[in-house]
Design goal:
Elements (H helix, E strand, L loop, with lengths): L1 H8 L17 E2 L14 E2 L3 H8 L3 E7 L2 E6 L4 E4 L10
Antiparallel strand pairs: 1-2, 3-4, 4-5
Bound molecules: zinc ion.
The site of zinc ion (ZN) has 8 residues, from α2.
Length: about 90
């Protein structure tokens, strides 16, 4: 499951972060303590820095579609991160 999630998301799932998923932790999108299950549609790879930020509670993450992450701020702004292409377009 870890290899699948990292291959699917390719990078840290926080907006603007390009750290490769292979160098990131795995975390539950909906926290396990809140009933989030350990399944591919509830796992994401934030880098260590952003994992700490995620748990600070400033942003509320959700994953409405596996691999598509929505980050909602406390005042309702939303940012979406999606997996990048597997091949560069200049190939
Ligand atoms: Zn990051």
């Amino acid at each position: 499951m870890a290899r699948f999630v990292r291959a699917r998301d390719r990078n840290c799932v926080l907006p603007g972060c390009s750290r490769p998923a292979r160098d990131c932790d795995l975390d539950h999108t909906k926290p396990h303590t809140d009933g989030g299950e350990t399944r591919v549609d509830n796992m994401d790879p934030p880098c260590r820095h952003h994992r700490r930020l995620k748990h600070a509670g400033t942003w509320t993450p959700s994953q409405p579609v596996p691999g598509h992450h929505v980050w909602t701020s406390q005042i309702g702004y939303q940012y979406i991160t999606e997996p990048g292409p597997y091949l560069d377009e200049q190939v």
